[in-house]
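Quick one: co-fold with iron/sulfur cluster.
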Amino acid sequence: MSEATKTRRLRFEIFRYNPQDPASKPHVEHFELDETPYMSLFLALNQIREHDDPSLQFDFACRSAVCGSCGMMVNGRPALACRTQTSDLPTVIRLYPLPVFKLIGDLSVDTGSWFRALAEHVEGWVHERALFDENAPEERMNDDVAQAIYAADRCIECGCCIAACGVANVNGDFAGPAGLNRVARFMLDPRDRREDADWFDIVANEDGVFGCLGMMACHDVCPKELPLLEVYGFLRRKMLAAGLGVGTAARSG
Ligand code: SF4
Ligand code: FES
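Sure, here it is.
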């Protein structure tokens, strides 16, 4: 077998801790396996669970970057395990749970509660301008606005951007990139009756868009490549205009 096709032996260093078990202490365990072609971290972790330790906790549902449940720290960087190929990593692979979120156990964290609290805080649903009338003609939406809303809705709430964010790591009240993306989505929506000024108390402070220090790690790690840099720019312009009492009716960036 040539050097180029030689099977790599992968060494996994995996964080282990079960907060439900008083006897459990945070530590790292090592596992080894032979890399196979097109091996994702999802496959590798399943192999470890099947052959080495059935108690290893991690989350997966869709295996195709859609459900957002498999975010974890991969060699120090937040990533979706289902779409990370081991061939893109060195032979030593260090896996830790995403910070910021409540640890369920090992590599599994509770992103759901975080995103639910965020949605309740920003009231992340359409506040209708008028009651729904099933007999009224369908209202047209501007194509560009519809595309912008669609783009924001591509967030899968994986939490990678929150884990990568230095501010979210030290300020538990910071809405974070995904939270501010959610706000922008409803600010753009012409069906929502909230004007820019109505968002001011939620967004125009240190727990909102002005808490961002501009490191933009969120933009680098988002697996859906959401334009988070542009989202921050959009919200800053909107909040500055709302603070000055101008342009509150305008909805486009
Ligand atoms: Fe994940 Fe990107 Fe949504 Fe953040 S903005 S939660 S990184 S999909
Ligand atoms: Fe659904 Fe990875 S398993 S995003």
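If it helps, The domain at 123-243 is CATH 1.10.1060.10 (Fumarate Reductase Iron-sulfur Protein; Chain B, domain 2).
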